[in-house]
Structures
1.
Amino acid sequence: MIRTKILGLGSHVPDRVVTNEEIPYLDEQHVRQDTIQTETNDAWIQQRTGIKARRYVPNDGSVATSDLAALAAKKAIADAGIEPSDIDCIILGTLSPDFHFPGTAVLVQKKLGIDRTSCACFDIRQQCSAFVYGMQMADAFVRTGMYKRILLIGAELHSHSLDFTTRGRDVMVLFGDGAGAMVLGPSESDDPRTGIVYTSAHADGTGAMDLYLKIFEIQKLPYVGYNAKSREENEIIYPKMDGKRVFLNAVRGMVMSTQAALAKTGLSWDDIQWFVPHQANLRINEKVVEVAKIPPEKVLNTIEFYGNTTAATVPLTIDYWRQQGKVKRGDRILSSVFGSGFTWGAAIFTF
Ligand code: COA
């Protein structure tokens, strides 16, 4: 039986580090001003979220989501020991695509110079759950023999669509830019405890308007109706969130999917080296660890210094801790995620 294996991993974050101390002084061009632009502070952000800093792309218009994605993808392809031309499918998760259409995966294909005749490109829209959703898709494609070298990418450029005023502070302080990628392909091994062992994907559309970014409403004429210069009218171009509902549902979804992953595979924490939760808020992850009784020494986070990079958090966190020497080839990882939609899920895989 064909099984799916992770062949390579890579990630990329922009150089600019934006600390909590700097956040209140940034204007909408990300330029530090002398006076406070947003009423927030380091103590509030750290206490509620655990975040100390995040990364932003340059503010000169030189970097798009597809650029972050391509940089992470190149590293994953090199790590897999293959060439870009070997990739026969790209699955890209993002909520910050370069354009409304076409999807961003085709732009990454072009940037990687992948042959136009032999590579399928998918954009998926599961926000913070996209990497686990994408892993489930990739696993199904590999197992059926449909594709043999799948590039799975999570990439986000959040910093350009955040509201740098007190109105948007609840969301703005959480998010950062970055990308992570994996190459997946068929494995020789028949061992059900190696490669992609398990994936689950869930959704509850009744939570759709608890975390959303509209930008336009297609049922209206004109479908884009805001004045960018008017504070009141431009609200539609920024994300909106009911933080408490998101927090409660995230804990519930991540705990349930983590427990189900273990129950359905018959694995225990003795069999798992690392728990890599989505990085939305350190407090969410601490609650999930407490309720699901996860050994705290097995938990890997990066939220403190990368913030929430949505579709990128899982590969970014694994790659960061690999570079620090913690995660090693062959380690078994349980990852659980939750995001806008609501969407959530879990995966168990050996790296
Ligand atoms: N800095 C300072 N004060 C802030 C703030 C900020 N960045 N954001 C909100 N506040 C204020 C609020 O205006 C409110 O003020 P008030 O009491 O005067 O009305 C106060 O802090 C409490 O706000 P509240 O929304 O009740 O805080 P909270 O304890 O729910 O924490 C979040 C807010 C966003 C940190 C929290 O709800 C959360 O993390 N939710 C999950 C978010 C998430 O993970 N999203 C991504 C999911 S994939």
2.
Amino acid sequence: MARVLSGIQPSGNLTLGNYIGAMRNFVKLQHEHECYFMVVDLHAVTVPQEPEALREQSEAVAALFLAAGIDPLKANIFLQSHVPAHAELGWLMTTLVYMGELERMTQFKDKAAGKEAVGAGLFTYPALMAADILLYEADLVPVGDDQKQHLEITRDLAQRFNHRFGDCLKIPQPYIPEVGARIMSLDDATKKMSKSNPVAGSYIAMLDSPDVIRKKISRAVTDSGREVKYDPATKPEISNLIGIFAQCANIGVAEVEERFAGLGYGPFKKELAEQVVAVLEPIQQRYKEIRESGEIYDVLSKGAFNASQTANRTLTEVKRRMGFLLPPGQ
Ligand code: AMP
Ligand code: TRP
């Protein structure tokens, strides 16, 4: 049984990209592995957040984990800020990482571009993410394609630590879907689908109503031509939609092409909308019930308790190896 850890930021609405790129794999992995899934609220505050919105979104994302099918009896669901070891190991990782490594991170470059004032936390973000993963001795980290670089820096930091202080930290592997690791924006296939895009028509939120989903998909930009053919290099827009279809219907892209051979974009988009609705509607229904029941508080408190046990063991070992004088009894 491997250890699995991943996190999602509670900032804005989660999108179909989050679901296909990451969350679906959380649900799949929980059956075979020891899993830790967290709402990374400490990462969310690397850009300004309204306190009330942060609280609401943190609860919403945790409830969505459950609604998407993560079973709290199988996996640990918790908030990053409920386990103080993250902030503490995050600091220690900040002392190990090099400025040059952080400067190369494309997520930092994208998020900092054009901003006058950029918080230092946005820059040191990967050190905290490395801590998140290393605390649990995770073998597998299910993420979308955009997190690959952060996983590489995590592996480098673990190796650097082990080299300097003796073998202790596990080197994690990314776990990235073959199709759907990068769901693109509905209005521009050169951009990743993102909850922070101000154009609502560019993404499908996991909580968009069926009618909104249908409308957004009918308006999604398509390449010229009319053939439903998967070829990301020359037909990026339709290929993105085919990828979404394949993931939602649980079939291969070749099968999608076959099903719509000679039919054109119109019928394809109509059926795509129904496939997306069929995936998201039951999640939305469960989400509503979970929010109303208040069960999430109990889940989060158990999750934080279990997570702390694992995380504190690693943190103590790291501190011992680095030469911190530990309190008596540790
Ligand atoms: P974030 O919303 O940035 O916290 O991302 C949470 C997870 O969703 C990460 O594993 C991301 O890689 C994944 N993700 C976010 N956007 C997309 C997308 N457009 N396509 C695929 N995966 C995504
Ligand atoms: N950086 C990730 C993102 O923006 C979120 C994240 C934080 C994460 N800590 C993590 C993902 C640990 C996987 C493992 O999507």
